[in-house]
Design a protein that fits this description.
Layout: E1 2-15, E2 19-26, E3 30-36, E4 53-59, E5 68-75, H1 78-81, H2 85-101, H3 109-121, H4 128-142, E6 161-164, E7 171-173, H5 174-177, E8 185-186, H6 189-192, H7 202-217, H8 228-240
Antiparallel strand pairs: 1-2, 1-4, 2-3, 4-5, 6-7, 6-8
Helix pairs in contact: 2-8, 3-4, 4-7
């Protein structure tokens, strides 16, 4: 068995004395693992960094085997995030969440394209945290936990939507919330893609998406918590907004 594709490196761990096992996210093969011989060497270790875009060839005797990768570097995110701690935290959060959430060898082509775009924005576009928020919504959608902010779950209204139901993931208006308002999650304008495009409400929005990532998406994996890199990013963003 053999295939070749382009992908982004999500995770790497040492294997034996000089090899490494990597996870790569490709458009047509999804999250795919394999061994890189010499992956821990001085030549390859600097290339095998999370967020690196690679040309990969995978080979195995049988399709269900772990298999082996040969890799060629295409693009690295290291330079653009090296001096930006928040952007570096963003890179680690994206890689961590993809490695955590994606079923192995299950293609998610639209999420792949969105992820590459977000990697390109890190450290280069000052508004990348908003793009990251949109990416978390896309991740939830792709994993089957999409949120619906189109109308109030209680009244059907499309105006004054300021809450999210933690049970249904649907928007709730001020009037519809009534006495249950203190049990609902915030729905700031940036979470709905409305407003002036500023980062106002970003921290509240990340609280809401974080609830569904932890209590809906992650719960399907049993007792596994969300990657700590996600919380480190949230804390970094709070310090800068």
């Amino acid at each position: 068995m053999e295939w070749r594709s382009e992908g982004v490196l999500l995770a790497v761990r040492r294997h034996g004395e000089n090899a490494a096992i990597i996870e790569v996210f490709t458009q047509d093969r999804g999250r795919h693992a394999g061994v890189v011989r010499g992956g821990a060497s001085r030549k390859l270790a600097p290339i095998l960094q999370p967020g690196a875009q690679l040309d990969v060839t995978w080979r195995a005797r049988l399709e269900d085997h772990l298999g082996a990768f040969t890799v060629e570097p295409l693009k690295s995110c290291a330079a653009q995030v090296m001096n930006d701690r928040t952007a570096l935290a963003g890179l680690n959060a994206i890689c961590g969440l993809l490695s955590f959430a994606l079923p192995e060898r299950d293609p998610h082509p639209e999420l792949y394209i969105r992820s590459l775009d977000l990697f390109d924005r890190l450290g280069a576009d000052p508004a990348w945290p908003l793009s990251y928020l949109e990416w978390e919504l896309a991740l939830l959608e792709d994993m089957g936990f999409g949120l619906d902010f189109s109308s109030c779950a209680v009244t059907g209204a499309t105006q004054d939507l300021i809450y999210v139901s933690p049970k249904s993931g649907r928007a709730v208006s001020r009037q519809g919330a009534g006495e249950w308002a203190d049990k609902l999650l915030p729905l700031p304008g940036c979470l709905r893609g409305v407003g002036d495009g500023s980062q106002d409400g970003l921290n509240e929005a990340l609280t809401t998406t974080g609830f569904f990532l932890a209590n809906r998406m992650a719960s399907q994996f049993g007792d596994r918590p969300l990657p700590a890199a996600r919380q480190r990013l949230v804390e970094a963003i709070r310090k800068t907004t």
